[in-house]
Known about the structure:
Elements: E1 2-9, H1 13-24, E2 30-32, H2 59-72, E3 76-78, E4 82-86, E5 93-97, E6 101-109, E7 113-115, E8 131-132, H3 135-138, E9 146-150, H4 154-163, E10 169-173, H5 183-191, E11 195-198, E12 201-208, E13 212-219, E14 225-229, E15 232-235, E16 239-241, E17 271-273, H6 285-306
Parallel strand pairs: 1-2, 1-6, 2-3, 6-17, 8-15, 9-10, 9-15, 10-11
Antiparallel strand pairs: 4-5, 5-6, 7-16, 12-13, 13-14
Helix pairs in contact: 1-2, 1-6, 4-5
This protein binds NADP nicotinamide-adenine-dinucleotide phosphate.
Residues 49, 118, 150-156, 158, 175-176, 180, 202, 236-238, 283 line the site of NADP nicotinamide-adenine-dinucleotide phosphate.
Amino acid sequence: MEREKVIVIGSGPAGLTAAMYAARARLEPLLISGNQLGGQISITYEVENYPGFPQGLAGPELVELMQKQAERFGARLIVDEVTQVSLKDGSPFMVKTFSQEYQAEGLVIATGASPNRLGIPGEEALIGRGVSFCATCDGFFFRDKDVVVVGGGDSAMEEGLFLTRFANRVRVIHRRGELRAGETLKRRAMENEKMSFVWDTVLEEIVGNGKVQAVRTRNVKSDTTEELQTDGVFIFIGHFPNTDLFKGQLAMDPMGYLVTDGRAMTSVPGVFAAGEVQDPVYRQVATSVGQGAAAGMMVERWLVDRE
Length: 307
Ligand code: NAP
């Protein structure tokens, strides 16, 4: 079994920043990437609001820069996935991956969040066959096609706007009569002539035989149902934290987000958390980076205080 001073789980902006801080403190942290190197930002077409990049930059480019910076100071990134952790007996913590078992004196959890699903018939079966949770990944396949976007938040608007580069028509289906998205994205979406809005409407079924053909919808005000022909269904209805690994071991709020103490520490001393896994509110690259920096600093301080 390998023994590490610090293990960081997750390679999004929070994990990469925590690793960089721990590396600068000469802890040679081991960063375990998870199944998506770079996390959600790696599938973001453009990041416009990360300070220092006035022209914006592509998500994967930002990941690459952050990774290089962490590695420059001695962080070691491995592409692997954590399958089990044992935290309750205190430090050193057991961290098991698909290929290896480790002990870690200090731990930073930055496992992020994943997209919510609608939980309706047809959704699961048609993932990758017209149902998608990522316009950047799949938008290209919908050139000159009709797609629907589900949701009324910033993600739905941003991804919907991205889809207008490819699709003929992007219909946003939202369960209320008003968008949740902020003013800038709302205005851009409303002004885009390829985008239209279906208000007060929910999806009841995604219909398709091998690929998406239509959605069955219900207007929640008139209680009328309709079948809309479409080639793709892009779903952006929020996220849930990736905390399954820690159930029964770390304190969580009712939505499953890890609870931290204001100094990035979870309910188990020596285990810190950063980014969306413990943040249901801000969910920005800039805030995740700040939280990652805090966790990287606090794990180092905790290790020093313990000695
Ligand atoms: P969000 O703000 O929580 O919006 C989720 C949307 O999905 C809401 O419109 C919600 O409807 C709808 N929804 C939720 N559950 C649903 C269901 N079961 N069926 C149908 N519709 C459902 O999530 P988000 O858009 O992913 O954004 C999350 C955070 O990231 C926000 O703080 C956002 O500002 C931020 N963000 C920022 C940017 C940016 O600044 N460029 C880009 C993306 C995300 P209701 O409105 O009725 O609740």
